[in-house]
Amino acid sequence: MKNPHTLIEKELSSEKVFSGALLHVNRDQVLLPDNQTSVREWIKHPGACAVVPFFENGDIMLLRQYRYPVRQLFWEVPAGKIDAGENPDSTAERELHEETGVHAGKLHYIGHFYPGIGYSDEVIHIYTATELRLTNSNADIDEFVEPVRIPFREAIEMVHQGSINDGKTVICLLRAMHWLQNR
User: Fold this and answer.
1) Catalytic residue check, 143
2) pLDDT, tens digit (0-9, with 9 covering 90-100), for 122-145
3) Catalytic residue among 41, 131, 143, 154
4) Hey, what CATH topology would domain 48-181 get?
């Protein structure tokens, strides 16, 4: 294997080409390992957290949510962006409660992943939640979700059948399955 340092690109300049409420798009000039230059366009993202909440009987809570960019309804785990100055544990707790009305007695950090490394710096932190208490949900004013309680085994089967096809949710459910088998 080559020396990994021979693969690193170096930023020569960076230009912000769009700044939105959530996303910021940059266009960078980079120096390639062979001393040529190229352009990299990428999205700056604040990061997010996703939670797989487990009830005592093995059920989990998923959400049904319409996603405008692809004009489809999706099955998803509760998730949301990290607010400025907020730590991921707090984000996970907040998003779980806002979207599902569930409070976790215990949150378990089980890893993270990068969903779009070719065009974004977004990182999603994954949690499982146990010792759950149901309360009222408090979704954001522009967020319409339907919480649905489902057996975990059924959710895993839905992944393999293709009816759960949101990448974040697929990864979170498979990581949660590994966590469950090894606790």
Assistant:
1) yes
2) 999 999 999 999 987 666 677 789
3) 143
4) Nucleoside Triphosphate Pyrophosphohydrolase (3.90.79)
